[in-house]
């Protein structure tokens, strides 16, 4: 489950129009969410609230061997009231790490255009987020500055500082700087870390069948192929690092169910990892992973799944119900819903299509047929749109959109996750859900290497925010 | 890489300046965030409201 800090950062990215998934760092996010999810250690309680329009605070108390805690404060220069919700009202899928729906370059472009329009209304084009967290009793300070430099560039500075208590102890500071640049089809990250003077470069390229600008605007394609690599070099130890990965994400044509496949390679360490993740239903996700090392011949097979409990579905917004009445009356009952994170990205680009409201008055009367009042360019554009539509593809996209629309409207109340490794002989269970206005997260990690399985780690986390 | 040649005294002074700057940032970072939150709002909440993570009644 996301921590409060991660949630605030997510809200900030959402309101400022930054896509966190558009980075090489996140290329294996779906398999990692399902196979390497975090198990809480000990008992932890955190309380958070929105103090003013732009500032947020949180306090955490943790019991693991001994009692410790932390307080954290946030300041965001842009107003996050549309994205931020307390634990009592936020949709559970937005804080539980599960299957990630990948947007194609075209969907990305549509979303970016919309976000730009929204940002113009907000006024602050280059917002920033400040974060500070102090741990007790150690008094370690953790800080972060996120600053948008332009529409496509963002700078993030993270630091950790330990205080100097005695003359003999030396204080330690670690500083990491990220300079990120992204657009609808590629992303580049430059990283510098003061630890070993580490320099890093991450690149991600997104390819899709609707990559070109001239593709038909009438529908979107949710299939995407992403490829990327990362390079690391430590200046002090002169040691390099390298990895590369490919990700293919699509929807099953008959049902619109999403699936993602990845292949990652690390030539220096000799590891090859392949994963297959699928969402066979709205309430379930399944993932498998196979790893192999070409130097040591060691291999592992991991399996994981998550099951969601659904209490019902939110109705589509009334405005959209009336707008899409004709579509909703069709046999497949496709309902378009804007305002949601995922579905809005899949909205067809209607900016170039002809709306019924665009009818002009000719000779003092409103023309019923807009085709008659179009100029030659519009005729050509409309015909190209219709000629470009492949019925089979349109059906697939409608199914995909319907699946996402229903998923976004689902009222999930809890999730159960399980992951197991064949070579390591361990199994993890986690339960995350909502009780009243509290978010609960619990889990257990069982090691089966010995004759008697032993509990390696277990814990419970309680979160409340308003 | 160009090596920076500094005398022992300069190195010590630079270390002290760096240490002091680090201490100032360490203890003023959170008050600075709180101040920005206080300055950005027109209602100007009191110190306890600004500091407390508990929801106000």
UniProtKB/TrEMBL annotation, chain A:
InterPro entries assigned to the protein according to its UniProt record, in alphabetical order: Mdm10
UniProt entry keywords in alphabetical sequence: Membrane, Mitochondrion, Mitochondrion outer membrane, Transmembrane, Transmembrane beta strand
Membrane topology: Multi-pass membrane protein
Any one of the GO BP annotations: mitochondrial outer membrane translocase complex assembly
Subcellular location(s) of the protein: Mitochondrion outer membrane
Assigned GO CC terms: ERMES complex; SAM complex
Keyword Mitochondrion: yes
Pfam families xref list: MDM10 (PF12519)
Domain of life: Eukaryota
Function as written in the Swiss-Prot or TrEMBL entry: Component of the ERMES/MDM complex, which serves as a molecular tether to connect the endoplasmic reticulum and mitochondria. Components of this complex are involved in the control of mitochondrial shape and protein biogenesis and may function in phospholipid exchange. MDM10 is involved in the late assembly steps of the general translocase of the mitochondrial outer membrane (TOM complex). Functions in the TOM40-specific route of the assembly of outer membrane beta-barrel proteins, including the association of TOM40 with the receptor TOM22 and small TOM proteins.
Self-association state and partner proteins as the record states: Component of the ER-mitochondria encounter structure (ERMES) or MDM complex, composed of MMM1, MDM10, MDM12 and MDM34. Associates with the mitochondrial outer membrane sorting assembly machinery SAM(core) complex.
Family: Belongs to the MDM10 family.
UniProt comment concerning the protein's domains: Lacks alpha-helical transmembrane segments, suggesting that it resides in the membrane via beta-sheet conformations similar to those predicted for other outer membrane proteins and porin.
Protein name, entry field: Mitochondrial distribution and morphology protein 10
Automatic annotation (TrEMBL), chain B:
Sequence similarity: Belongs to the Tom7 family.
Name of the protein in its database record: DEBR0S1_19394g1_1
Keywords: Membrane, Mitochondrion, Mitochondrion outer membrane, Protein transport, Transmembrane, Transmembrane helix, Transport
Stored PANTHER family: MITOCHONDRIAL IMPORT RECEPTOR SUBUNIT TOM7 (PTHR34944)
Top-level taxon of origin: Eukaryota
Cellular component GO terms, alphabetical: mitochondrial outer membrane translocase complex
Subcellular location: Mitochondrion outer membrane
Chief location category: mitochondrion
Membrane topology per record: Single-pass membrane protein
One of the GO biological process terms: protein insertion into mitochondrial outer membrane
Coiled-coil spans in chain: none
């Amino acid at each position: 489950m996301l921590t409060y800090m991660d949630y605030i950062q997510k809200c900030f990215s959402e309101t400022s129009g930054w896509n966190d998934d558009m980075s090489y760092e996140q290329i294996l996010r779906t398999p990692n969410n399902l196979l390497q999810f975090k198990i809480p250690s000990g008992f932890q309680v955190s309380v958070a609230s929105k103090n003013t329009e732009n500032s947020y605070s949180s306090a955490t108390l943790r019991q693991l061997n001994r009692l410790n805690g932390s307080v954290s404060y946030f300041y965001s220069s842009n107003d996050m009231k549309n994205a931020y919700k307390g634990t009592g009202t936020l949709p559970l899928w937005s804080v539980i790490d599960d299957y990630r729906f990948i947007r194609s370059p075209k969907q990305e472009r549509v979303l970016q255009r919309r976000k730009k329009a929204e940002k113009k209304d907000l006024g602050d084009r280059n917002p920033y987020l400040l974060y500070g967290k102090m741990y007790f009793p150690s008094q370690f300070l953790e800080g972060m500055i996120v600053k948008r430099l332009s529409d496509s560039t963002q700078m993030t500075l993270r630091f950790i500082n330990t205080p100097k208590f005695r003359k003999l102890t030396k204080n330690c500071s670690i500083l990491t700087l990220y300079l990120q640049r992204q657009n609808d089809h590629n992303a580049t990250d430059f990283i510098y870390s003061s630890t070993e003077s580490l320099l890093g470069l991450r690149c991600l390229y997104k390819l899709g069948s609707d990559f070109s600008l001239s593709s038909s605007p009438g529908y979107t394609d949710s299939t995407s192929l992403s490829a990327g690599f990362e390079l690391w070099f430590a200046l002090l130890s002169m040691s390099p690092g390298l990895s590369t990965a490919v990700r293919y994400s699509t929807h099953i044509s008959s049902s619109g169910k999403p699936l993602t496949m990845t292949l990652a390679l690390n030539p220096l360490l000799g590891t090859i990892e392949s994963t297959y993740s699928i969402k066979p239903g709205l309430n379930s996700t399944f993932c498998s992973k196979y790893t192999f090392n070409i130097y040591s011949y060691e291999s592992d097979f991991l399996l994981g799944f998550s099951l969601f409990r659904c209490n019902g579905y939110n109705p589509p917004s009334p405005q959209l119900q009336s707008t899409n009445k004709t579509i909703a009356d069709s046999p497949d009952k496709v309902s378009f819903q804007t305002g949601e994170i995922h579905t809005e990205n899949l909205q067809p680009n209607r900016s170039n299509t002809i709306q019924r409201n665009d009818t002009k008055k000719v000779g003092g009367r409103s023309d019923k047929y807009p085709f008659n009042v179009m100029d030659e360019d519009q005729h050509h554009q409309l015909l190209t749109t219709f000629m470009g539509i492949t019925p089979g593809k349109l059906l697939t996209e409608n199914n995909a959109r319907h699946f996402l629309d229903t998923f976004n409207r689902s009222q999930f109340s809890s999730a159960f996750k399980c992951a197991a490794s064949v070579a390591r002989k361990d199994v993890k269970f986690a339960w995350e859900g909502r009780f009243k206005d509290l978010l609960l997260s619990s889990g257990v990690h069982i090691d089966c290497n010995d004759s008697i399985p032993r509990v390696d780690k277990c814990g419970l986390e309680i979160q409340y925010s308003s | 890489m160009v090596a920076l040649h500094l005398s022992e005294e300069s190195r010590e002074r630079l270390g002290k300046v760096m240490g002091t700057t680090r201490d100032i940032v360490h203890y003023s970072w959170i008050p600075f965030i709180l101040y920005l939150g206080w300055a950005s709002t027109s209602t100007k909440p009191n110190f306890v409201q600004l500091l407390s993570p508990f929801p106000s009644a």
